[in-house]
Q: What sequence folds into this?
């Protein structure tokens, strides 16, 4: 069990016991934490999970050698996955699709929504490059048939094609499609699909635990004054305000 889970457990315990808002000193809180024994192996697995999921292949390999923690997937597949992600982020969707099919053709064959979003991103890139005729032809031949089968796809297609109606996209209500955030969104979706195909969690465990920690502290704020962790990057306990 990770330190984060243990900390959350203690927060919930105090919340249950408190009938009125009580003061918990930093010394008392640290004593509770000191009584908890956390296996180093479990913490190492948490770190490795984060490195693998986020694609830090060099860091994962170094951490494997230093800690002896084995990843649950072949680290070589991380490089391939990151190549796909980088291709989408740079707007090279055709290359990204080829790389995904090289990894596992079933990923796109069994995920029509992901394939549509990749094709949608390809359409966006054509519009970004000012290739209007090519964009219209691509939308009609590749995306329109899928839109006829799925109402949500049709709505997304119509929203994307609307970019062509504006010479100045700064005044376009759908200009967010041309933002880098749209590429990142598509890249993240592809990354998650590849991880799922490899029987790996699509999201790292660490951020979820931190969110639970923040939630637990917010709940406990109503019941007690205690040493909070306000800076998650340092996890330092701050003296309770009295």
A:
């Amino acid at each position: 069990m990770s330190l984060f889970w243990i900390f959350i457990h203690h927060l919930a315990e105090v919340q249950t016991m408190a009938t009125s808002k009580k003061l918990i000193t930093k010394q008392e809180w640290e004593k509770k934490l000191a009584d908890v024994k956390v296996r180093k192996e479990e913490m190492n697995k948490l770190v490795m999970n984060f490195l693998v999921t986020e694609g830090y292949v060099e860091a994962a390999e170094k951490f494997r050698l230093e800690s002896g923690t084995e990843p649950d997937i072949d680290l070589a597949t991380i490089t391939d996955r990151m190549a796909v992600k980088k291709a989408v982020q740079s707007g090279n969707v055709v290359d990204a699709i080829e790389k995904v099919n090289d990894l596992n053709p079933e990923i796109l064959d069994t995920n029509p929504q992901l394939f549509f979003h990749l094709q949608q991103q390809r359409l966006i890139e054509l519009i970004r490059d000012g290739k209007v005729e090519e964009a219209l032809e691509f939308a009609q031949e590749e995306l329109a048939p899928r839109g006829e089968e799925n109402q949500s796809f049709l709505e997304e297609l119509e929203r994307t094609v609307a970019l062509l109606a504006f010479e100045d996209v700064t005044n376009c209500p759908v200009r967010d499609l041309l933002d880098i955030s749209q590429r990142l969104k598509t890249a993240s979706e592809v990354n998650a699909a590849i991880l799922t195909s490899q029987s790996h969690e699509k999201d790292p465990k660490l951020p979820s635990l931190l969110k639970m920690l923040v939630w637990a502290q917010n709940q406990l704020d109503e019941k007690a004054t205690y040493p909070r962790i306000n800076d998650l990057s340092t996890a330092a306990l701050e003296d309770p305000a009295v």
The chain has a mean pLDDT of 87.
